[in-house]
Amino acid sequence: MAVLLLGCIMHVDIGLLMPQLRDQADGPPVTNVMFLKTHKTASSTVLNILYRFAETHNLSAALPAGGRFHLGYPWLFLARYVEGAEQGGPGQRFNIMCNHLRFNPPEVQKVMHNDTFYFSILRNPVFQLESSFVYYKSHVPAFRNVSSLDAFLASPWTYYNQSLGLSNAYARNSMWFDLGFDNDAPPEEGYVRARLLDVEQRFQLLLIAEHFDESMVLLRRLLRWRLDDVVAFRLNSRSQHSVTPLSPAGQERAKHWCALDWRLYQHFNRTFWARLRAELSPRRLRSEVARLRERRRELAAMCLQDSEPKNQSQITDFRLRPYQSGRADILGYNLRPGLDNQTLQMCQRMVMPELQYMAHLYTLQFPDKPPKNIAFLGA
User: Fold this and answer.
1) What's the rounded Cα separation, in Å, for the pair 18 and 342?
2) Which of 69, 99, 100, 275 sits 20 to 30 Å CA-CA off 62?
3) Which interval of the chain is the signal sequence (predicted)?
4) Which of 1, 33, 11, 79 is nearest to 229 (CA)?
5) Higher-pLDDT residue of 315, 7
6) Domain count of the chain?
7) Across the chain, which distance is largest between two alpha carbons, in Å?
8) Is 365 a member of any domain?
């Protein structure tokens, strides 16, 4: 039985609830955006930002077709994975694309406008790999039969079978893989430089997860969005007890094992800060980050029962419980009781887990099609 998600939510412009705060560069907001959602990189929080923007501005989203929850991952993306792409004919285009996919530029361009802004987010691969190990432990063959990531990295080829191909994509250079490249390629200098140039030519911006607030300041500036458009609560995060830091030796091994991701991260960490320095003075950047954090605190006080995220058993509204995977204890939020209807709508969107929000948008965009069935909610 399909779940009708948050049926009480009306499709209204929640921008009326929030200050506009459009004091950045002149010009209309960018409304054609493609976000390559990499794995275990704070990308779920970015996805929430984009979903909210799409809904607030009545924009079309390139959503997975039928009962799927991703756009063909881990296979290279094809336009036919998008609901409505084939029915709309070869000219069908969407405003927002942000679900998991493996980047395949010619096929992405078939469903996105020519003036689309392309961006993604990267994370230090040492921490990204640790998160992947915990989250995908039961799904990835390379991780199933090893007790810890340190043990895996001490002898990775004992567990990693290259012939298994796509099923082991999360276990090595997964950000490189998400970009459409070969995650098992030797990290030879000429090859790496050529692929980094490919990324620079395809994407206008690569954000850095470790500097999320600075990333949002820069993204907001380039997209000419309101402050509230990029304010978000952290989503799909883990409890501290499910985080197992790598030993110093393990961290160095992770950089070697994921050498392609390490080069990718180092390169675009440098370009990120160079872009920030070109756009904003240090003083202005500090001011913008402070404004962002203050607005987040204001919205947390307005929306949340308390500011601390909760584990699944503590979340009272089952529709707001995030999907759980592997050993990860994925957290969510409780909303304050007694919110008026408009504030409730806004706050629900800010804490809605990604699967539920995707299903909600799918129902709004394709009301004549069967709604998505989210099995873990008890559908």
Assistant:
1) 11
2) 275
3) 1-15
4) 33
5) 315
6) 1
7) 60
8) yes
Instruction: Enumerate residues 6+ apart whose C-beta is below 8 A from 198.
Output: none
Question: For residue 14, is pLDDT > 90?
Answer: no
Residue 1 lies in a domain: no
Measured over the CA atoms of residue 218, residue 219, residue 223 and residue 229, the dihedral's sign is negative
Backbone angles phi, psi at 208, to 5 degrees: -125, 120
**How does pLDDT run across 68-91, given as a tens digit for each residue?**
999 999 999 999 999 999 876 677
What is the overall mean pLDDT for the chain? 91
Cα 112-124-165 angle, rounded to 5 deg: 65
The string of pLDDT tens digits covering residues 192-232 is 999 999 999 999 999 999 999 999 999 999 999 999 999 99
String of DSSP letters for 143-197? HHT-S-HHHHHHSHHHH--GGGGGGGGGGS-HHHHHTTS-TTS---HHHHHHHHH
Q: Which domain holds residue 42?
A: 14-377
CA distance 325 to 162: 24
Strand order in the sheet with 96-97: 96-97, 33-36, 117-122, 205-208
Give this prediction's pTM.
Answer: 0.91
Mean pLDDT of 119-132: 98
Q: Check residue 372 and give its pLDDT.
A: 94
Structural element, H or E, at residue 97: strand 96-97
Q: Pairing state of beta strands 205-208 and 117-122? A: parallel
H or E, element range at 120: strand 117-122
Least confident piece of the model among 40-54, 294-308, 325-339: 325-339
Q: At 350, which CATH number?
A: 3.40.50.300
Q: CA–CA separation, 142 vs 343, rounded Å?
A: 45
- Find where tokens 């285009």 sit: 93
Q: Is residue 2 part of a domain?
A: no
Q: Is residue 291 part of a domain?
A: yes
Number of H helices, E strands in the chain: 15, 4
* Cis status of the peptide bond prior to 74, with omega within 30 of 0: yes
Angle between helix axes 354-365 and 43-56 (nearest 10 degrees) is 30
